[in-house]
Write a structure and sequence with these properties.
Blueprint lengths: L1 H27 L4 E6 L14 H10 L4 E3 L6 E3 L2 E6 L5 E6 L6 E4 L4 E4 L12 H12 L8 H5 L5 H5 L8 E5 L2 E5 L7 H4 L10 H7 L15 E7 L3 E6 L16 E6 L2 H9 L5 E2 L7 H7 L4 E14 L9 H9 L3 H8 L4 E2 L26 H15 L10 E5 L2 H18 L4 E5 L1 H11 L3 E7 L9 H5 L15 H12 L3 H18 L3 E13 L3 E2 L14 E2 L2
Parallel strand pairs: 1-12, 16-17, 16-18
Antiparallel strand pairs: 2-3, 4-5, 5-9, 6-7, 8-9, 10-11, 11-12, 13-19, 14-18, 14-19, 15-19, 20-21
Length: about 550
């Protein structure tokens, strides 16, 4: 009986222990979900077609590039390539790739991430051949990639393919896990370019099966720390942890299970954050910044950024087809006042390229080439416009200033609108569109003045003026319709120059041509970032502003 009693007690203790351990296991395995938001305008998550920061953010979490940038130093480091070598003449890059990384997709029926298999039931793994296909697809003019020129210039045959010629690219799979890329000319930053999102592998079989719908939830195949779980266009997109990403020292496995992104304008974002409905918001409405500084000092973080805020001019429509008009509008912008309104520590900009990239340009060092806020100079330029065109203020055609939907952009546009009215007597109509519609408008029919921002993809002047203004046309990022061949030649010379001082002077000449002599754009300020994050989120801050979400955690 005693023996039986001891057995009962032991059994009871064992059951209780199992229940407790089971409860602890359930608690430990609770799904971690981080809720956040994007500004209105649906995303494009095709690596060949993405252009906006939020799109690249998602692509980077689903498709790891050959190389990545260190989170704080922005130095190049391994990504999908474990290592690489460069030939002595700088013309051949050879990348050794990770082995046995599976392609995955989210199975809607099973409710889980599964490995992709071929027709014989074999797991598909990422190979050098997938990189070759992805780069060829990006540079195919039928794809319509806006970022294709950035890559094409640095791949043998790239510019010819982009022009529609039947050529073989200088990209080859030496075997399943060795990729070779040949460049027509050397440059020290090419390892960074080859790691950019438009250079990622693409799942050829899925693209051939689904066509344009290959990126839809349930169809899209990825291999990085996350993949798409659900996507209600223009409403929300959710990415979920990929348990099959093996992780590396540089790109570890994800910790948070799901990131839920909803589309909200910035005032609604902040309201949801304050209500506890969002865990992180990547922007803060300008009128609320001072209040956030006081009420949420632990949640608010303001840091330097990698972007430039500017207005572009369409140089082939009236009246911004005239350089004196463009220069008048640019010089009439009181940049210090705009920065004060923005209230986030931004810096007035006289050049397009930020001064904190290699080889950095400071407008104080090149005062005659930079553009400056100058009301009297603006009036003189407007007088030259009227003299040259034989018109008066009453003859001016309507001028539209367009921006993508954002309360912050609207406030700045209204301030600039008032400056132009008070300084020049010019009335300007403001209009806005959501991000994707706006992007397509700029590509096909840009208004006289449009708001734009540019963030570097690698910390070099080439990633600013070189990548944006080296070409012109609907499939480029240059929507001004301006760009003489001599200007392009100057950018090409600067891109490959090895002497830093000479290179800086070349870029200064190009900047002076862009912002002053031709006044094709009006740089306004160098960004800072203002983010709000709940205190229970354990996160990092990426210096290149493409947050590495796979390193984040939630500790409530």
């Amino acid at each position: 009986m005693r023996k039986s009693h001891k057995g009962f007690v032991f059994a009871l203790v064992l059951v209780v222990a199992l229940l407790l351990s089971s409860t602890s296991l359930i608690t430990a395995q609770e799904t971690k979900v981080l809720r956040t938001a994007y500004l209105p305008g649906d995303v494009i998550i095709d690596p060949a077609l993405g252009t906006w920061m939020n799109e690249i953010q998602l692509v980077n979490m689903m498709y790891i590039g050959l190389t990545t940038l260190h989170e704080t130093t922005v130095e190049i480091q391994p990504g999908f390539a474990t290592d690489w070598s460069v030939s002595d003449d700088g013309l051949v890059y050879t990348f050794n790739l990770l082995h046995d990384v599976p392609w995955v997709r989210y199975d809607m029926g099973a409710g889980e991430v599964v490995q992709v298999t071929d027709e014989n039931g074999n797991v598909r793994v990422v190979t050098a051949h997938d990189f070759v296909y992805g780069i060829n697809r990006t540079l195919d003019p039928d794809t319509g990639s806006q970022y294709a020129p950035t890559l094409a210039r640095w791949v043998v045959g790239g510019m010819e393919m982009l022009a529609g010629e039947d050529v073989e690219l200088g990209v080859a799979a030496l075997d399943d896990y060795t990729l070779e890329i040949r460049t027509p000319r050397p440059a020290g930053y090419l390892g960074m370019i080859y790691g950019m999102w438009m250079s990622r592998p693409h799942p050829q079989w899925a693209i051939e099966e689904y066509g344009d719908a290959w990126t839809e939830a349930g169809n899209i195949e990825t291999y990085g720390p996350y993949t798409v779980k659900s996507w209600e266009h223009d409403v929300q997109i959710t990415i979920t942890k990929n348990p099959f990403w093996p992780g590396t020292d540089y790109v570890p496995p994800a910790i948070i299970d799901d990131f839920e992104f909803v589309y909200l304008e910035d005032p609604a974002m902040l309201a949801a954050f304050e209500a506890g409905e969002l865990d992180w918001i990547p922007t803060v409405p300008l009128p609320d910044l001072d209040r956030m500084r006081v009420e949420y000092p632990d949640e608010l973080r303001i840091t330097s950024d990698i972007c430039t805020y500017y207005y572009g001019f369409n140089t082939i429509i009236e009246p911004t087809d005239n350089v004196h008009m463009r220069r008048a509008l640019s010089m009439a912008i009181d940049r210090a006042t705009v920065v004060a309104i923005s209230n986030g520590g931004q810096i007035p900009a006289g050049f397009f390229t930020r001064p904190d990239v290699a080889p950095g340009l400071k407008q104080e060092d090149y005062p005659d080439m930079a553009i400056w806020s100058d009301p009297e100079g603006a009036k003189a330029e407007l007088a030259l416009y009227f003299e040259e065109t034989g018109t008066t203020l009453e003859d001016l055609p309507p001028i539209t200033l367009m921006h993508n939907t954002s309360a912050a952009h609207a406030i700045i546009a209204q301030a600039v609108q008032q400056m132009w009215k008070e300084t020049l007597g010019i009335e300007v109509q403001i209009t806005s569109q959501d991000a994707q519609v706006f992007n397509e408008t700029l590509r096909r029919d840009a208004p006289a003045v449009y708001r734009a921002g540019w963030c570097y993809d690698y910390p070099d002047a080439s990633s600013f003026i070189g990548d944006v203004y080296r070409s012109v046309g609907p499939d480029s990022n240059n929507h001004t319709n301006w760009g003489p061949q001599e200007f392009f030649d100057l950018l090409d010379e600067a891109a490959v120059e090895t002497d830093t001082a000479v290179r800086r002077d070349l870029y200064a000449q190009a900047e002076g041509w862009l912002v002053n002599e031709a006044a094709a754009i009006a740089p306004i300020y160098y960004y800072t970032t203002q983010q709000m994050t709940q205190t229970y989120v354990d996160r990092t801050y990426d210096a290149a502003r493409l947050e590495k979400l796979n390193t984040w955690d939630i500790n409530r």
